[in-house]
């Protein structure tokens, strides 16, 4: 990995302590977010706060299973977020499809379509596991190792081919993609 300048290291350190998250509540894992965010586990003490729009968010949370229709919206959302940006996949469904592994309409591996920086195993992951994953992500950001957004740029053709294979040609000919 390229040596970071002092300014890049300072910026990464600050970024790791100020994370605005966009939670795309696709699956049942989302019910663990309210206890993680409120008084008992209190994510905000780590500088993690919810954000309503992709253009101001640092992290995209995919909180469970994704069907192919939803995948399209997730890709639009991810592409609207500014770099550097990070993705967290909640639960088995984002890793391998979970209990929907053989469903015709469910995406089995999220990281074929967008780069995932941290996965949280479990069905569903408890708030302790969510906070542990965020601590791990903060450490990766601080060290400059959370580089999914760079991989997306460098391997864009590979991601695009996977997206088209799942969504069909219509994906690249709609109003968002000329
Ligand atoms: S991993 Fe379990 S809790 Fe999470 S979305 Fe899938 S079925 Fe629901």
Automatic annotation (TrEMBL):
A GO BP term here is: aerobic respiration
Q: Where is the NADH:ubiquinone oxidoreductase-like 20kDa subunit domain?
A: 25-136
Q: Which keywords appear in this protein's UniProt record, sorted alphabetically? A: 4Fe-4S, Iron, Iron-sulfur, Metal-binding, NAD, Quinone
Range of residues in the leader sequence:
none
Quick one: a GO cellular component term?
Answer: respiratory chain complex I
InterPro entries assigned to the protein according to its UniProt record, in alphabetical order: NADH_UbQ_OxRdtase-like_20kDa (IPR006137), NADH_UQ_OxRdtase_20Kd_su (IPR006138)
Q: What is this protein called?
A: NADH dehydrogenase, putative
Give the species.
Thermotoga maritima (strain ATCC 43589 / DSM 3109 / JCM 10099 / NBRC 100826 / MSB8)
């Amino acid at each position: 990995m390229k040596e970071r300048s002092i300014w890049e290291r300072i910026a990464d350190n600050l970024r790791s302590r100020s994370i605005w998250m966009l939670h795309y509540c696709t699956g049942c894992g989302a019910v663990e977010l309210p206890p993680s965010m409120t008084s008992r586990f209190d994510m905000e003490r780590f500088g993690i706060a919810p954000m309503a729009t992709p253009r101001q968010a640092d992290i995209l949370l995919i909180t469970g299973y994704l069907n192919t229709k939803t995948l399209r919206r997730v890709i639009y959302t991810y592409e609207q977020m500014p770099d550097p940006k990070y993705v967290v996949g909640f639960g088995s469904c984002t890793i391998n499809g979970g209990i929907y592994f053989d469903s015709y309409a469910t995406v089995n591996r999220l990281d074929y379509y967008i780069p995932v920086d941290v996965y949280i195993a479990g069905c569903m992951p408890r708030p302790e596991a969510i906070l542990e994953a965020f601590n791990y992500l903060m450490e990766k950001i601080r060290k400059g190792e959370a580089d999914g957004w760079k991989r997306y740029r460098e391997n864009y053709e590979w991601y695009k081919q996977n997206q088209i294979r799942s969504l069909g040609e219509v994906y690249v000919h709609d109003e968002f993609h000329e």
